[in-house]
């Protein structure tokens, strides 16, 4: 359901435009193939459950409601197979009347991945003019902390696009986005590993997400 939601995909595309330099290099997405890796994970929908896992205070086997979150976004070099997929996507968009819009690929990778491999779902990214215009304007994001209720104002960047995307999913208490599910033991262990400061790829990207997103600073203050 993630790739079918225009708000989530719009925020992701904004982040990709900024992170991959589409504004600075007009050849990207036209005669220069490009792709991006997006690491997704399931995180507790309740902030305090996240704290419990991070500090290893949750019992093994305890049922926890989780939600999809984007932990990382990384431009990466396309393999020859994916270059062919990009060329097919570029040709299809040209034929459909979008020859003036950039096109890229995104690989969504879940927590079963390693640094180089994983269960990837590949999708095409079409960047309409409105996305490029928003990326050029760089209007700041305005939001409200899910923990304290305080207003948050952040400049637009690739990472604040992801943070806003994650906040949008977090705010969906009634699961209208259909992005909530019960956490698996593997989902929980990724967060516990981050709490243990393990130097694994999955633990590192959780820690990086915690450093850049405002809600985790709020949670740390509440646990002092």
3D structure, described in words:
- It is globular and about 55 Å long.
- By secondary structure, it is α+β, with helices and mostly antiparallel strands.
- It has helices at 6-20, 47-54, 80-95, 129-137, 158-170, 185-195, 201-212, 214-222, and strands at residues 35-44, 65-76, 103-109, 120-126, 141-144, 151-154, 180-182.
- The strands form two sheets. A five-stranded mixed sheet has the order 4-3-1-2-7.
- It has one domain (2-219).
- Helices cover 42% and strands 21% of the residues.
- Helix 6 (185-195) packs across helix 7.
Largest sheet: 5 strands, mixed
What is the H-and-E element order? HEHEHEEHEEHEHHH
From the helix content, strand content and strand pairing, which structural class follows?
A: alpha+beta
- Overall geometry comes to globular
Let me know the average pLDDT. Answer: 90
Uncertain regions spanning at least 5 consecutive residues: none
- Strand fraction equals 15-25%
Compute the number of strand runs.
7
What strand line-up does the widest sheet have? 4-3-1-2-7
Radius of gyration over all CA atoms, rounded: 18 Å
Characterize the quaternary organization of these chains: single chain
- Whole-number total of structural domains: 1
Estimated helix fraction: 40-55%
Q: Please, how many helices?
A: 8
